[in-house]
Design a protein that fits this description.
- The chain is α+β, with helices and mostly antiparallel strands.
- 25% of the residues lie in helices and 29% in strands.
- It contains 5 helices and 13 strands.
- The strands form 3 sheets. A 7-stranded mixed β-sheet has the order 5-13-6-7-10-9-12. Strands 1-2-4-3 form a 4-stranded antiparallel β-sheet, with helices on one face. A two-stranded antiparallel sheet has the order 8-11.
- Helix 3 packs across helix 4.
Length: 232
Amino acid sequence: MTVAPAEFTPIGDSAVLVSFADAISDTAHAQVVALDRALGSDPPAGMTETVPALVNLLVAFDVTETDHADISAHIRGLLPGLQAQGIAGAQQRVPVCYEGDCAPDLAAVADATGLSPEAVIAAHLEGDYRVLMYGFAPGYAYMAGVPAAIQVPRKPAPVRDVPAGSVIIAGPQCLVTTLKMPTGWSIIGRSPARILRDDPDKPFLFDVGDHIRFERIDLATHHRLSAEAEHG
């Protein structure tokens, strides 16, 4: 992987934003993931957190231990070695039910794309999804990989009280909601997967860079798995 020049921007008094591009690209995101992992393996003194996004990485630090200059110098020392960093994420499978109330927008997506509901489901299942970043709400993993045939824009207005576990799409992105919240994305299924974890070392099911494949389940299986997750 050829590493593009990085831009360093101080954020307040306790963070540095490292940017690899000003537009979304696979190359820039690969560099973000590689740098995030490099910092995990070789953290500078005083670093407290890294937050990967689409084309940049926020590196937070304790101002009583270090400063912008030292953090930036450490990161610059890691950049040449990113060419050798592997960025292959874990492969994960997530069950999805596309039936009834689990998929209130499935018919609308079918109408918008000129496909049958079954063809929309088939296309969604064929996608190879990659976690790009977390944002907006706890555990909201933004994934790239929605097939072009079923890419639809956001709705003109958001819908309130969308259940946790809803599988939603907008443009090329997909995510599985973790909380009851409003969304303007299209709801095409629901998953019983527990994305929020009771583990401080790994609070979310996915890591940035993971590859996700969705697997179809019926409504009875969804109810059973949801009950097991709730009581497990």
